[in-house]
Amino acid sequence: MRNTILAFGEAMVEFNQSIQQRRNYLEGFGGDTSNFCIAAARQGADTAYISAVGDDHFGRNLLALWQQEGVDIGHVELSAGVATGIYFVTHDDAGHHFHYLRAGSAASRYTPASLPLAAIEQARVLHLSGISLAISESACDSGLAAMAHARAHGVLTSLDTNLRLRLWPLERAREKLIEAFKLCDICLPSWEDVSTLTGLDERDAIVDRLLSYGIKLVAFKLGHEGCYVATPEQRRLVAPHPVQALDATGAGDCFGGAFIAELVAGRDPFSAARYANVAAALSTTGYGAVEPIPRRPQVEAALPG
Asked: How far apart are CA 193 and CA 248, in angstroms?
């Protein structure tokens, strides 16, 4: 089966702290590339996930989630005797905080030999993130090999920087993400990530650096300021969509999934970013990474006229 959008990375089970009863946690799902896939699927895109989960209660729940969401699971390995990663989200006056139990997880043991090369060759877009590369050396090798294979077969590659220095030291992150940038067609960075990676603190200077690697399209996520879309020919700030935000968990992933879904549907980058800004904003009006991700009718209803 041919899938338009493939994503590679790690999905996890989420336990999100209740604001009202702080000793209670709501079980849900997360993992940036999984969130991305679900967001794209909810906008009507044909998607598939490349990963591994444990042959356990949590792994099977993730498989059921993807099937429910219409995400193809034909490239997800079910690994016996290995755990599925989980994480906790806590909330305080400073925002939301993540606490992970993912060392040695099934996805972190993924190797290049498991890559579905034929499926990658037939895709329109292959998406991954900095976390996809950071969880282990073998996962990093797998992600870069997948990008190289996609590039060799004319498949667009998309990368969300998602820099997590708890997973790898900054120097290794720089080295491997620069490798990824050189294999990347569409980059979805956030301010803190790329300012840390590049040492630059001016928006256009950062975009210049990213485009210098051969990237064709940058959608620079700026949170409440919207996003800055840049190609080698033009740059434009795309306004945010105001909402009363409750929980920003996964909002950047939702943006990415909606943005890529719109691009493969034939929208221009600026229209795609306008749509994705609305989708990401709506995703912050509920709790958790997956449940609040809007579907296309909700986004279209909220789009400014």
From this structure: 17
